[in-house]
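[User]
Protein folding is very new to me. Any chance you could explain this protein sequence and its structure tokens? I have pasted everything here:
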Amino acid sequence: MTKQVTPARPHLRLGAQLLQRKSVDAIIADNEGMEPGQQLRRTLNVWHLTMISVGAALGTGILVILSTAVPMAGPAVWIAFVLAGVTAFLSALSYAEMASHVPVSGSSYSYAYATMGEGIAWVCGWCLVLEYAVSVAAIAVGAGQYINESISVFGLSIPDALMQPPDSGGIVNVPAAVIVLLATLLLIRGARESAWVNTLMVLIKVGILLFFTAVAFTAFNAGNFQPLAPMGVAGISAAASQLFFSYIGFDAASTAGNEAKNPRRDLPRAIIASMIIVTVLYVLVAVAAVGALPWTQFSDSESSLVTILSDITHQPWVALLFSVGAVIAIASVVLTVLYGQTRILLTMSRDGLVPKLFGQVSPKTGTPIANTLIVGVAVATTAAFVPLGQLADATSIGTLFAFSLVNISVIYLRRNRPDLPHTYKVPLYPITPVLGFLFCGFLAVTLGMETWVAFGLWMVIGVLLYFAYGRSHSVVASTRQVEHRKTAAAAPDASISQDSVSPGHS
């Protein structure tokens, strides 16, 4: 009998490995077949999921990015919000269908793995790291100004040295780092606890935005909308590209697939409902803000809405109330987007593309503690030292790329796996996913050259990491190679090493 020696680390050829897909059936089987101590707990219903999605999106564009978008689009900033919202909504419809097909925590990373192969899946996952982790840092950066507005009522202030990153005249952004670390500690306690805290924060921020709208409309001046688009179509599209950053959070709900009680039914509902809520509130507040304050008077401050309220009411308590609510709103976004990042890395870890440490779940809390701590500390450090504008643009381009892949994934599964169960279908197929892809491409090309260069460097780093770790540790590639060797050694006396291989990868 010939002794068969099994290599310790089997590999496919590079081209074959990059194109190797992980079937939808395998993705679902792997997630359902985890050992009890390593499973995430299914505790979230459609209300929790909707609040996660709203919590991740609502607030950022209005509270932080608005004051930089108005000078670009003028009074037509509300049109820029609509353009960005339509782009996001088209992709949200595709996300909803994919979530009904692949109800797991991997979001667009898992969708790409099932349709376009490991190479594109890795690129998508790396874009999601940019989207989630960097956006958390960008969001947290905007909290400092609102904290200062809150304590200014008492004659106090945080010095710029402790509220701005080095490039903005400070040393370190302490409030941003603190908010990220507090969210990290809450996420470690458990998904259900985090979801209830997030729900409370979402209700508070919806309340303060409606409060702002009611006050701003008392000073509404229709003349502030003339001329509507002083910078032309180019200004509107440039603002829309930046404001797209405000909508990216809706896909955070799709990262809760392994913790949802009924993911096939509830994830599509949560995604679509959250997009409607967020878009309506963004446009409403943008119209109210420009109606109350001429667009030429918007400053670079992240707290323009507080300035409007103060000018209208001349009451310090109003500014205090809104500023405190704004800090809570920003904290909600930080919490939910940070949650999404940890779940993406957990899924990638279980596929072998990032270290196993990111995939370990605590039996006590049902959360990936090490994963959450690593991500939290890294994001807090980024938020403390990197300016908001650079972070927001970098996040947008990564998100647009990931959204484009989701639209393509819908078309692939409709053509190749029409038998898959689903609870939601994209309307007007294939027009909707094609338009979603084209809209994402349009906004991407309007981003500046510096953003594209930064994105290119990010992709180069991602490719290097894949070859350094992911290529040699890929579970799917290893499984395929073992199967090929078994087929090649089909003689009756062949002795094949029975490595532990998940049957779901076939």
Remarks:
- The CA atoms of residues 52 and 151 lie 29 Å apart.
